[in-house]
Specification:
about 450 residues; alpha+beta; Murine Class I Major Histocompatibility Complex, H2-DB, Chain A, domain 1; Immunoglobulin-like; 5-stranded antiparallel sheet; 9 helices; about 25% helix; elongated; signal; Ig_C1-set; MHC_I/II-like_Ag-recog; Ig-like_dom_sf
Amino acid sequence: MCAFKMYVVVLLFLFATLSTVDSVERWSLNYIYTALSKPVELPGIHEFTAMGLMNNQQIDYYDSVAKKKIPKQDWMREKLPADYWEKGTQSRKSKEQWFKVNVNILMDRMRHNNTDLHILQWKHGCEIEQRDGTLKFIKGTDQYSYDGDDFLAFDDVTMQWVAPVDQALPTKRKWDGVQILNQYTKGYLEKECVDWLSKFMEYGEKHLRMDDSPPKVYAFAKKAKTAGHVRLTCMATGFYPKDVVMRIKKNAVPLTEHDGVQSAGVLPNDDETYQIRMSVQIPEADKETYECYVNHRALKEPIVEKWDGKCCDCNQVTGVIIGAVVAVVLLFITSLLVLWKKGKIFAGKKGAPPPTGIQEPLNGNGFGAAVLNMPVKKDDASSTDSGQGSNERLETEPMLANGVKKDDASSTDSGQGSNERLETEPMLTNGVKKDDASSTDSEPLGSD
């Protein structure tokens, strides 16, 4: 029974089906820029990072170490030309410099020193709704935060900046003082960003139109290498998107790495869905209650799959039976060979091999069962600043203007163009007002 259950699990794992829908109600495109006041000695944490997100999936990426804007989805790499990535790289390098200036400005304004770590972020983008093949703008986002708290946000209805803290008032006054820039920001959020989002929807149609798919969860155990122990495994497969929570629980208490829990993390299936496995070694005689807990956004409530306490290969009866059968077959073949050599059978048929009465399996593996191999499709992790061109605005503006001077609104680093507003804002430390919205020399957030 255990073997049959495992067979079903493998089949479901290999042939999980993909469900799609004709359209998605809500779509979003956002660019996020993060700058630290000083470097930290932690792996994967950089002084400056920028990324593009479509429906919360990363599509491009840049950091202060690699200094290159790269695609994070296959369709981004395939559909967008090399100059898109080259211009995007230059735009983000400029923003990186703008952020360095503005982090220091805000630290001074907040009366902070460089002893502690401080963080400046900028997020901008748009959200739309698709109905009957038409796109409708829902809302735009253009906001800054300092050390995790809201600092400044653009209201695209009133075309004014909102300052939730007193320290943001100097910047608000400067930016609101140039209405043409506010108009440009509004136009970017409601038109340019939407145009780029529409284009990306077309490029990544197959991948991005996937409907949420709930996981199938299994709990099983196999004999461990350590004598007297089994390895209990929880497996969830066929889910989409990839964000999932899995726990192995003992008597309703989650086990951790300190308890020996192991996992390779979330891995891709061949049908664009994902799978994850977690396992832990436990005594074979353990009679405690073990269960697999899995939660995913496609589920109305978490799945709890209890282990039935059985071990798939711990019972040696099956092995003994198979061994006995093999021994009998070998004995039978040996007997036939002896009789053949003595001329007792197959007399007169020279050159003909002695039939054994046992036919070779058609698949050649000796057990009559085909071996299935499942190719694993790697997730693309190479790019993140979409919306070059006018959309560049978004990307080219780290969550704060990056101080980069825009060449023109046709730049291909998304969010450049009008979004440059933040960077081009008249918040320059020297109080100089930008000549026009196409300038890309981002002004600092403003100092008095």
